[in-house]
Amino acid sequence: MQTATQIKALLAERGLSPRHALGQNFLIDQNLIRRLVDASGVGPGDTVLEIGPGTGALTEALLARSARVVACELDPGLATLLEERLPTLSLPGSFDLVRGDCLAGARTLNPEILSKLGPAAGPGGRFALVANLPYAAGTPLLLALLMDHPACTVMAVTVQREVADRLSARPGSKAYGTLGIVAQAVAEIERIAVLPPECFWPRPDVTSAMVLLRRRPVPLTADAPALARFCQRLFAARRKQLGSTLGRRDDWPLGIRPTQRPEELSVPQFVALCAVAGMKPGSD
Ligand code: SAM
Fold this sequence. Notes:
Rossmann fold; binds S-adenosylmethionine; 20% strand; 11 strands; 2 domains; Helicase, Ruva Protein, domain 3; alpha/beta; two-stranded antiparallel sheet
C-alpha cells in the first residue's frame, strides 16, 4: 500500500522525481489497485507480467497474493528502488525484474521478458498481464501480446480512456478501428472502472480506464496479424466503399455489400472478408 506521501518520500530519498516522458503517474487509490488485481483473478503461484512497476504499489498487491511476478521497468532509478525495497517487505510471492524497455521494436516484446517468463510464455503455458501501463507503450504492447503471445490469457490493465474506448468500440463509432477489431476477435473485453486524474500522483492530463481482456478459448481468427494488416488497409481508406478498395468480386461473405464502408462491418464480417480478400504476409 502506497499513499502519495509515501511515493513522494520514496522518490525523494533517492533524489528521484516523476518523469513525464516515461508516463510516470503513480496510482494512489488502493481500492482501484485491489479491483485490478481481483479482476485479473491472479492467485498463488500464477505467473504475472507487470510492465512499469514504478515504485511497486501494484507489485506489492500481486506479491501479497503469492504470485510469481516478472516485471519490466525502463527507469533505472525506479528499478534500483524496487530491487532494494521489495525484498525488505517479506511478501510471499516472487519478484524478477527486467531493466529496460518492454518493447524491442514497434510491436515486439523485449526477449528478456520472454526468457524470464520461461515455460509460462511457451506452448501450453499461461501468464497474465497486470499493469498500470505507460501511455506510450500501451497500444503496441497490447497488440504484441494479443497477436503473438497466446499464453497471455488475461490482461488487466490501466490505459488512457481513449485506448479503452478503441478496444471495445462498436461498428459505426469514431473509435472503431484496427485495435478494437483485432482485440475483439481474440478476446472478450470488459471495462472495470473509469479513473479521473485525481486517482494518480502526479495528476495526468487525461482520464484513464481499467480494462479486462480475457482471451477467447476459440478466437474468431486464426491469423490475427493478417487481420490487423487487412484492417489497416481498409481503414486507410475509411471513407471509401469496400468495392472501391477491394475491387470487383462476387464472393462477398456474410451479407457484406460492396457499397458499404469499412466502419460499418462487424468484427465477424471483417474476419470473413479478410479470409477471402486479405493479403498474404509481406505483400503490403
Ligand atoms: N505501476 C506503477 C503504478 O501503478 O503506480 C507505475 C505506473 S506508471 C503509469 C508507468 C511506469 O512505466 C513508470 O514506472 C515508467 O517508468 C515505466 N515505463 C515507461 N515506459 C516504459 C517502457 N517502455 N518499458 C517499461 N517500463 C516503462
